[in-house]
Records
---
Amino acid sequence: MPTLHDKTVAHNTLRIVFKWPGDDFASRQELAIRDKIVDHIRERGVGKVIHVATGMGWMDILIEVEDKDNTTPKLEAIIKETEPAITYTIENLERTP
């Protein structure tokens, strides 16, 4: 499974980043929220989830998509439907040589 530093992370990858209270791994409840978001991404065909991670108070989901501009609002809608109060960012990853 690719990581953020893996050269296989393509130019068509988005990263959803969540900040949780504290500086540890995500709790079971937080993991359940992430899993619901991942399930919705897959069910709706928004993109291909290629990596999930948690630690140090952060959690992320890497998604390979066909069109970043059109996919970002769809991801935002999924997150807001799943957990309206969650704090997150969506980053546009670019491969660097």
Note: The longest strand covers residues 48-55.
---
Amino acid sequence: MGQEAENIFRSFVFDDVAHRDDFDRVLAKLNEYFIPRRNVIHERACFHQRTQRPGEKVETFIRALYELSEHCEFGAARDENTRDRIVVGVLDKEVSRKLQLAKDLTLTLTIETVRQAEEITTQINLQGGAAGGSVNEIKRDRGKYRTPRNKLKDKAQQRQQCGRCGKPGRDAEEMCPARGSTCNSCQKVCHWRKMCRTKKVVREVVTELADQPQSYFLGAVNKMAGENEHWFIKLLIGLTPLEFKIDTGADVKIISEEAYLSITLTPLLQPTHILLDSPGGGGIKCIGRIQSSVTYKGKKYLLTAYDAHGRSVNNLLSREKSVEMKLVRIIEEAIHQQVRPCGGPFGDYGTLKTEPVKIELKENVAPYAVFTARRVPLPMLPKVKEELQRMEKTE
């Protein structure tokens, strides 16, 4: 062990000189010298303050409690204290409440209950993820939108205006200032140009099409564990490198709120009416749209991306931009085969080039019949039914 250990060994005081040759007694002295005395109060405080952390598995939490209780000197009450700490410190408060109401609760029953609850929660989350889909898919949805409330108010105000002159209220026809006037748009009488119905119809259609928000459907935009890193690239926006995922199913580019805030020279965030909806029904709020120059392998590209609200959203690179940056390639390959006048793509067709085949049938052969297998033969069906009815009556 070295000269220092020899000096420490010579400093030990034993009750009997013969104890210097006893291995167990020497080891106990060494442990007493090197291992400092533990503060039981501090160890118990650490034990009672230990709770299940967010994202921590129940098995890890229970194992940590066992390790902490080892130096608490609970004695026979170690299992009871561990049980109480699991009940109070488990992250699922609904399970904690049920365990507190249970009678004759043991440590084994507590561990089994929290394990089963965690397993059921994991299975439910996996089923929900499978229903939502794991493919990053973005599709346009035309025609589904809600009319803003301010537009409804504008239409209500328009209904209160005079249909001839446009002034508030509805004046009598003989009192309307537009009476006898000729419209400069349609050349008809009794209304002004700003209230012309012909022009209004066209203007309303254009307004509706311009104000109609475009809707996009998003799949799972979170990075899955074990995902292939080859589908992720680094793009330089200004002086800030950001990681984007190549998504050939996306029609638009997506940048997360966290990534946008991390850019050194933040691009201007423009308002937008784009709607991002996931297939599972949960919508993703779109904060705005940005336009910025990005650099990839020494080349610059113009990137228009939509800022999606959320801290765990991946940055997605659309199909169009991936093709433009030559990250993916569209393979258009067709096999053209020459069709001969007397044949098809698989060669000549017609009769077989072989000797004629003659099929001979045996005489006096009965045709083979296939019968459906039944649980009860049809001839015995009435008797079986009668017997079953008799047995029911006897019961």
Note: Residues 3-34 form one domain.
